[in-house]
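Researcher: Quick sanity check before group meeting.
Model: Go ahead. Protein one:
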Amino acid sequence: MEQWQSFRAITLRPLFACLARWRVTPDGVTFLSLLFGLAFCPLIFVSYPLAFACLFVHAVLDGLDGPLARYLGTASRRGSFTDTMVDQLVVSATTAALMRLGTIGLEAGDLLLAGHFGVGPVAMCGSPGTQDDHRLCSHPKPFVKPYFQWWSR
């Protein structure tokens, strides 16, 4: 995974330099990712190609926010947590939209959501027995309280 991250960082360095000049922030990229991901939900009932184009843009943006934060030197646990929550929200909303459309049956959709919500906390906490500083559960007290205070401002 580290090799992939360094390859991506080197390959995308010119794009990150442009985004930095334009003052695009990783949080802004995450927010755009959320908007495109959620746009899938109403669009799937109107236009399949447009809906899946929005989902594709969401996936691309979701892959850029973390590397951009590392490039700018602004990577943080808060950003990692926000990115994870945006991913959870988009997966849940798109699954619900596909269930409503009838593309995914209720049982399969329930299993997908249950599996996804089971994986999310593990992804945020890291593997048991590891010291992963950028994960939420490695330092719950100093991280969670300031994070929610930040959101309430």
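Researcher: Fine. The other one?
Model: Protein two, sequence then structure:
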Amino acid sequence: MYLLLKKSIAKGVLLAVAGLLTLLASGSDVWALERVWVGGTSIDWFNNANWNTLSPAAGDTARIPDVNEAGGFFNPTVNNTETIAGLTVEAGGQLSITLNAGTNRVFTINGAMSNSGTINFWPDGASERLDCSGNWTNNGTFNHSSGRVYFNG
């Protein structure tokens, strides 16, 4: 009985390890999180206090809801290079991508981008870029002044 139980546990552990290795090999980001903008502190995208947990890392998706600026909350502004896995701007939400000029700064979305609110792409220079590798769904407003938008997917 003891030997049978020991073999059963070993087989279960082996299957669990094999499943985890398969998931990791698939390229799926197991640790990715959805970061939700709350905007209670400032317009600074990189300020962790403006997010439900922390500001997005490269494997995370970002969701920008309507935060009601009249109620004392702030809409986000990205002014430096950033890479995220996906972006959703909800109806009433607003995102400004300003990217300070001088060093070819890029806002990269390595997945889908869905806009039902407003995205302002107003970089300071012509060399700054917005790169989108996934599907771009725009049911809102996209304002563009300079810089370049690349679709890589």
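Researcher: One line on it for the slide.
Model: Helices lie at 2-25.
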